[in-house]
Amino acid sequence: MSPFLSELEERFIRYVKIDTTADPASTTSPSSQIQFDLLNLLARELQEMGAAQVETAAYGAVFATIPATTEASTRTIGLLAHVDTAPQFSGTNIKPIVHRNYSGEDIVLPDDPSRILSPKELPYLGQRRGDDIVTASGTTLLGADDKAGVAIIMAVARHLLNNPHIPHGPIRIGFTTDEEIGRGVPAGLPGALKADVAYTLDGAHRGEIVYETFSADAAKVVIKGVAIHPGWAKDKLVNAAHLAAKIVDTLPQATLTPESTSGRQGFLHVVGMSGSASEMVIDIILRDFEREGLAAHGALLQKVCDAVQAGEPRATITCTITPQYRNMRYWLENDLQPVELALEACRKAGVEPFSVPIRGGTDGSRLTEMGVPTPNLFTGMQEIHGPLEWVSLQDMAAATETVIELVQLWAVAGPPKTPAEPAQESPAKTGSAVD
Ligand SMILES: [Zn+2]
Q1: Neighbour tally for 324: CB within 10 Å
Q2: Model pLDDT for residues 155-168, shown as the tens digit of each residue
Q3: What is the pTM of this model?
Q4: 31 vs 363, more confident
């Protein structure tokens, strides 16, 4: 049995009960002041356990240092988790329930018995028979995303500070806010974190190590028609709404949408359309794992806009494409050591690691392109952002043991290769990091 189980349970249960829902409508940082309720608690607990340089940033982050126990290490390793929870489902009054030694039966959530976790629909749950499973009670999400990561990092910090004979270099801890609304990496974060390499603890299945994310662009199509009183409109009015509908309808719907693609395929996704007969705006996100694919999606959209424009020269149609984030593999493939050591640490902790490209971005996507290579490590969290969210405490313990192995591997790792730079373009430093 893992020595970390009871500590992880105690911390996790305490942290998830603190409401830290992010607020996408807010323009402040953090988006909701309640995120400080957990940040301040974590800062206090880090101080009490003897961490150094515990600092709270006004924009919503807590940093701390676990000082090196060996001179050998040349690099500072960052460990990151976000305290906010997704606004899509209630994070207020969370009542976590521990289902000990899970039997493999359906789990009916007591506060809404229509919410059922069944291993028939959730095969990974079936694999976790015998584990201690934590769920919410039916009316809220659980917040394992990412308080599982928070609890794991706190358990790692406490363990390393209590056991200075474990050899490791300097470790920087960062607890961040607003990851769920795409504002998790403010410009000052890399400078404040002061890490050479970092890991987000924000992944799912046991053994999962992510270093491939989507590359992402956002497109805005603006259609200006010709507005005239409909009573006098014959041969004069140009209706922007009809032209917008034509553009959307001309985009491939059976082959290039999120609902028609999987695996390594990319897509164009119409996320919003608004306006009037005189002017319409279409917001579209473009996603692909490869630069060439992303460029092709942009070219296709431009071609469709050009064709509709050619059919109605009195309208004005513009299409602006803005880079959002890039596949972190572009940087990591120049020096895969952060990934290779994570894979090795996983094996040392008794877990068979695997890597899958994820169809989204992480805070690590932005951090990596800002110069801090940041793969994402598993925590165990499942069915996130909804009432069926759950996590296995044994998965969290496996992640804790993996990180403790990982910092020791870094202590004896060789010097860095040449600084990681992407092979080609350098994407713009704007846009949201996560979706
Ligand atoms: Zn997360």
Answers
A1: 25
A2: 999 999 999 999 99
A3: 0.87
A4: 31
Report CA(390)–ligand 1 centroid distance (Å): 13
Ion ligand 1: protein residues whose beta carbon lies under 5 Å: 145-146, 202
Q: What is the pLDDT of residues 364-402, one digit of tens each?
A: 999 999 999 999 999 999 999 999 999 999 999 999 999
Q: Active-site positions?
A: 84, 179
What is the whole-number distance in angstroms between the Cα of residue 178 and the centre of ligand 1? 10
Query: Percent of the chain beyond pLDDT 90?
Result: 90
Helices 35-48 and 144-162 cross at an angle (nearest 10°) of 10
Cα 374 to middle of ligand 1, angstroms: 14
Q: Which of 40-49, 91-100, 325-334 has the lowest mean pLDDT?
A: 325-334
Model pLDDT, residue 417: 63
Do 280 and 135 lie in a common domain? no
Count of domains for the chain: 2
- Same domain, yes or no: 261 and 335: no
Which pair of structure tokens corresponds to residue 154? Answer: 């706190």
Rounded to the nearest angstrom, the distance between the alpha carbon of 179 and the centre of ligand 1 is 7
Residue 12 lies in a domain: yes
The pLDDT of 322-332, averaged and rounded, is 91
Residues 242 and 100 both lie in one domain: no
Structure tokens at 240: 């922007």
Same domain? For 99 and 231 the reply is no
Tell me the DSSP string of 381-416.
-BSTTSTT-EEEHHHHHHHHHHHHHHHHHHHT----
In degrees, to the nearest 5, what angle opens at C-alpha 335 toward C-alphas 330 and 339? 90
At 405, the amino acid letter reads E
Do 252 and 393 lie in one domain? The reply is no
Question: Are 204 and 342 contained in the same domain?
Answer: yes
% of the chain surpassing 70 pLDDT: 95
CATH number at residue 271: 3.30.70.360
Same domain, 303 and 243: yes
Structure tokens, 291: 């630069």
Separation CA 385–CA 389 (nearest Å): 7
Taking a C-beta distance cutoff of 8 angstroms, is the pair 32, 19 a contact?
no
CA distance 94 to 406: 32
CA of 235 to the centre of ligand 1 (A): 53
Distance from the CA of 369 to the center of ligand 1, in angstroms? 19
Expressed in angstroms and rounded, the spacing between residue 400 Cα and the centre of ligand 1 is 17
